[in-house]
Amino acid sequence: MLNPDTFPEPAALAALVERQKAGDFGIVGSRLVFVANGLVQTWGGIEWRPWLGRGRLLGWNESPETVPDIAAIERRFGFISGASMFVTRAYIETVGVMDDDFFVYDEDVEWCLRRGSFTLGYAHGSVVRHIHGATSGSSLNKATRSRFNLYLTERNRVLLARKRFGRWWGLVALLALAQTAEHIVRVRSPRQFRIALEGWWAGIRGETGAPGFMLGDPASDARSRQKTAV
Fold this sequence. Notes:
Layout: E1 6-8, H1 12-23, E2 27-34, E3 40-43, E4 45-49, E5 54-57, H2 70-76, E6 79-80, E7 85-87, H3 89-95, H4 107-113, E8 120-130, H5 147-164, H6 169-180, H7 182-185, H8 190-205
Parallel strand pairs: 2-8
Antiparallel strand pairs: 1-8, 2-3, 2-7, 4-5, 4-6
Helix pairs in contact: 5-6, 5-8, 6-8
């Protein structure tokens, strides 16, 4: 699986297949490298922080020539980045497919969190260059993130908590609400704060799929498809 804004090196797929066979992994990730500056975005996967509903990119801004301890990296994986992931048939037949409730963000997280006994691997030789944010308007500068990116990021972290953390999901949601304040305190953008809050509230309501503002109805956030979380 690849994002449409990625450019795999010629040996990228072969390296994924080789690593999967060597470790019998359910999913294997690539070395993602930023097109803009040539630095590493992530060594395949992300260390997941469930209570914050956020991940930490492993290898962030490292030189592309740096060779990490592969086994140590794999032990820290919470999930594989959906920008480039090699998924086995056995994984799909056992775990199922991605949950389309999430619509763009966190479906890769949720897919990996329900992996059961399957393990996650990293193919360092699989180099995939990535134009970060080209498909969704995400940005390393939080003040310039698109409505699409910010709204769905905040909504889906709450949806993920509802689906995966049982009775504790409310606590995760409260922590997520507190974190939206950074758009006032640090980013100093009332507009970004308002969008983040709208996304958070949509997650509380259980909104899934495409948000209302993408469907041609600017006031339809409250009428987007509702579903009771599992």
